[in-house]
Amino acid sequence: MDSSVLAQSIVLGFTQIVISVNVNALIAVMAGSISTFLASRPVWQIVQC
Fold first, then answer.
1. pTM (predicted TM-score)
2. Which residues contact 44 (CB under 8 A, 6 or more apart)?
3. Three-state SS for 15?
4. Mean pLDDT, 10 residues at a time, over the chain (49 residues)?
5. For residues 22 and 14, what is the distance between their CA atoms, to the nearest angstrom?
6. Would you say 44 and 38 are in contact if contact means Cβ atoms under 8 Å apart?
7. Closest Cα partner for 39 from 15, 48, 27?
8. What 3 state SS string does 14-49 have?
9. How many CA atoms, within 13 angstroms, populate the side-chain half-sphere of residue 33?
């Protein structure tokens, strides 16, 4: 099988972009969930100060 380096680079770049977008979205969703959790429990504000 004869693949060009350009084609491999494009596929690798696209794969990296897809993975990074998914990871960043997961981090944003988790941050929102944690924020909601902490906002609904005022004792965490006391502990933080």
1. 0.70
2. 38
3. helix
4. 84 97 98 91 80
5. 12
6. yes
7. 48
8. HHHHHHHHHHHHHHHHHHHHHHHHHHCCCHHHHHHC
9. 6
